[in-house]
Design brief:
single chain, alpha/beta, Rossmann fold, 7-stranded mixed sheet, 5-stranded parallel sheet, 17 strands, FAD, UDP-GALP_mutase, flavin adenine dinucleotide binding, flavoprotein
């Protein structure tokens, strides 16, 4: 008998779900979508907790993008709630805006600088770096060592388990420094939250007769069953190849979810703790969702070495190890590797959607359409 499905997609997060929807809706292909977890949505999964407050199970997920194409695509499956993310950091006993801006410096140091004066103030403290290679280099070359110590050094050590001097420059390069009073965490053209939550958006995306979902299922238990002609794999690339060259390092997170008998806990959705505490941040979800509720739910976030993989660790030796797995992946026929874990890159949600849509375009070029799904039309084996 021919395979029951045209595609087996491993992982029901953004990468797998977008590709499942495109293959089913655009090509008429049959898709079996599986995930180890008992739900769709990957790390963006949200749910009502015991108090009835909508929380993000795996920490805060804030959608932002500069791509109109990506925003329009996701808009097929959700209405949006306009939301601009703001973050405060507890530094020297004060809550100040992060990324660092004019108000941050003026409040911390009791100054009244203008934007132009701040440029000179920062330039006087910046330490020239011949070649910017590490996360420490990025920050000290822009704002100097004192602000680096206050905002970045401790936070980065907690988040990654290593000193910023040992991490690739990409980690802190993501966080801008502003000389105006713009206190938004992101500057993207499109910033919004799914009006009914991420999970509802995924459910709509996957509501197609050509998509079969099997949740709480491990790929290892299905891989020898010959269920599909082709595979899209969004899990750990090193796991797929049996850790042939050793494990790729990841950072994990532990979440302490709490419900409080009060309407509001903190002034913004996220407060970072770069100088104190063993957690990195506290999230209060009602700021993100706009939900009205007499109680509020918050999450303390603790980075750790063991547990579910969340962040590829950006160090040169890890990049070299990934290249060996990447070569294997590229030489494996009829398997597409997509997403953060499968390509060992730290992507934002919109970047994963963009990668999935680009992968679909490559599939369109490489795999002829049948119009109603290959497996359904394939002749019986002789």
């Amino acid at each position: 008998m021919p395979p029951a499905f045209d595609w087996l997609i491993v992982g029901a997060g953004f990468a797998g779900s977008v590709l499942a929807e495109r293959l089913a809706a655009e090509r008429g292909d049959s898709v079996l979508l599986i995930d180890r977890r008992p739900h769709v949505g990957g790390n963006a999964y949200d749910r009502l907790d015991a108090a009835g407050v909508l929380i993000h199970q795996y920490g805060p997920h804030i959608f932002h993008t500069n791509s109109e194409q990506i925003f329009d695509y996701l808009s097929r499956f959700t209405r949006w709630r306009p939301y601009e993310h703001r973050v405060l950091a507890k530094v020297d006993g004060m809550l100040v805006p992060i990324p660092i801006n004019l108000d941050t410096v003026n409040k911390l140091y009791g100054l009244n600088l203008t934007s132009e004066q701040l440029e000179g103030w920062l330039a006087a403290r910046a330490e020239p770096v011949d070649e910017i290679r590490t996360s420490e280099d990025v920050v000290v070359s822009k704002v100097g060592r004192e602000l680096y110590e206050k905002f970045f050094c401790g936070y980065t050590r907690k988040q990654w388990g290593v000193d910023p001097s040992q991490l690739d420059k990409s980690v802190t390069a993501r966080v801008p420094t502003r000389t105006n009073q713009d206190d938004r965490y992101f500057g993207d053209a499109f910033q919004a939250m799914p009006a009914e939550g991420f999970t509802r958006m995924f459910e709509r995306m996957l509501d197609h007769p050509n998509i079969t979902k099997r949740l709480g299922v491990d790929y290892a238990d299905l891989k020898d069953e010959g269920l599909a002609r082709r595979i899209i794999f969004t899990g750990l690339v090193d796991e797929y190849f049996g850790y042939r060259f050793g494990k790729l390092p990841y950072r994990s997170l532990r979440f302490d979810h709490r419900t409080l008998d009060q309407e509001q806990f903190q002034p913004v959705a996220v407060v970072n703790y770069p100088m104190s505490e063993d957690y990195t941040r506290i999230t209060e979800y009602k700021h993100l969702t706009g939900q009205k509720h007499p109680k509020t739910s918050i999450t303390y976030e603790y980075p750790q070495a063991e547990g579910d993989p969340y962040y590829p660790v950006p160090r040169p030796e890890n990049a070299e190890l990934y290249k060996r797995y990447e070569a294997l992946a590229m030489s494996t026929p009829d398997v597409w590797f997509v997403g953060r874990l499968a390509t060992y890159r730290y992507y934002n949600m919109d970047q994963v959607v963009g990668q999935a849509l680009a992968t679909f375009r490559r599939i369109e070029q490489a795999v002829p359409r049948t119009g109603a799904g290959e497996a359904a039309l394939a002749p019986a084996a002789s």
